[in-house]
Structure to design on (345 residues):
């Protein structure tokens, strides 16, 4: 494997700050649990920003960024998705032109949106670029991953390149909040396989309907994923598992999480696929968990199991069945409320 240079992520938790925060909320609330999950988010933000005791007014979420990583997956050749692979390109172009739920909510909440071509299976430039309003960052590792039923989805070189690309994207973004989303036909298959192999969850519990499979299609998806698991049964190391059964966008999100955490930025994690990236990031650097805020719990059954395994609570639960960062934007008002409560305390 080529040399991998991962950033150092230090633990965010400060024992002194834990006590100060406890005293703050104790003095302003009827009882400790009055604010429920919002209190936990407020505490996490204070730790991430390393706020000195008794100076809580300096907690500030500035220039929030939403980065949507796009890629295609070779396993789609096996019929695991209800949509053709071309749908990835169409969704990306829709976003680049400023349309759809992601852009609407981003405008509402003041997020800058960037789309990263991590590995879309077609050209997006130059013909499409002149009609876009959202920045497209070209970090293409390949034109979709390989079919993991037949061979490894990514080579070791591609895995390292994708991790480094995700890190580089974050380095060049302003602000102290990075929200991560994804788009790509077949991505839930990769997420389910990473859940099975990294967490020991049975495939039947991890494999869901994705973007709307019917019963017969779900059966095919389960059978195909079983074949992929069998082919890559010797993959046990986190990076080896990622390369065998992951995707370019997942690998880039891993790199993005680690880089953002190393810079003490808050990372808002979207749905099932982004949380799969969090599983890998935690395996590589456990301290990264201090910086991850999990936006929501999706309708995909495996997502609930991921969150249980990570021992985290999502901000909201609205049974979403899409990525593209929409969940992070819907959770944002509560995260901002947590920031305000720290400052008001």
């Amino acid at each position: 494997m080529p040399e991998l240079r991962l950033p150092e992520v230090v633990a965010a938790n400060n024992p002194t700050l834990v006590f100060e925060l406890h005293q703050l909320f104790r003095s302003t609330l009827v009882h400790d649990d009055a604010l429920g999950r919002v209190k936990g988010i407020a505490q996490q933000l204070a730790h991430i920003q390393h706020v000195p005791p008794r100076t809580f007014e300096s907690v500030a979420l500035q220039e929030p960024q939403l980065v949507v990583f796009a890629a295609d997956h070779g396993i789609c050749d096996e019929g695991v998705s209800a949509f053709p692979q071309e749908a990835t390109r169409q969704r990306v172009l829709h976003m680049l032109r400023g349309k759809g739920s992601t852009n609407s909510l981003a405008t509402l909440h003041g997020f800058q949106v960037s789309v990263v071509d991590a590995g879309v299976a077609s050209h997006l430039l130059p013909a499409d670029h002149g009609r876009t309003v959202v920045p497209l960052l070209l970090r293409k590792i390949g034109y979709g991953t390989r079919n993991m039923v037949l061979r490894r989805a990514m080579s070791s070189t591609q895995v390292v390149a994708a991790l480094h690309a995700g890190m580089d994207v974050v380095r060049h973004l302003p602000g102290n909040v990075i929200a991560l989303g994804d788009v790509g036909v077949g991505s839930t298959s990769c997420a389910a396989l990473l859940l099975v192999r990294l967490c020991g969850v049975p495939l039947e519990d991890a494999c869901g309907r994705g973007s709307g499979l019917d019963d017969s299609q779900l059966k095919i998806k389960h059978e195909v994923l079983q074949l992929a698991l069998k082919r890559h049964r010797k993959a046990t190391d986190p990076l080896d598992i990622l390369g065998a059964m992951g995707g370019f966008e997942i690998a880039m999100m891993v790199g993005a999480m680690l880089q953002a955490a190393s810079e003490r930025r808050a990372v808002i994690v979207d749905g099932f696929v982004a949380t799969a990236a969090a599983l890998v990031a935690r395996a590589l650097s456990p301290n990264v968990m201090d910086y991850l805020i999990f936006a929501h719990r999706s309708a995909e059954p495996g997502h609930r199991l991921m969150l249980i395994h990570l021992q985290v609570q999502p901000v909201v639960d609205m049974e979403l069945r899409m990525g593209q960062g929409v969940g992070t934007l819907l959770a944002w008002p509560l995260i901002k409320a947590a920031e305000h409560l720290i400052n008001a305390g």
About this structure: The chain has a mean pLDDT of 92.
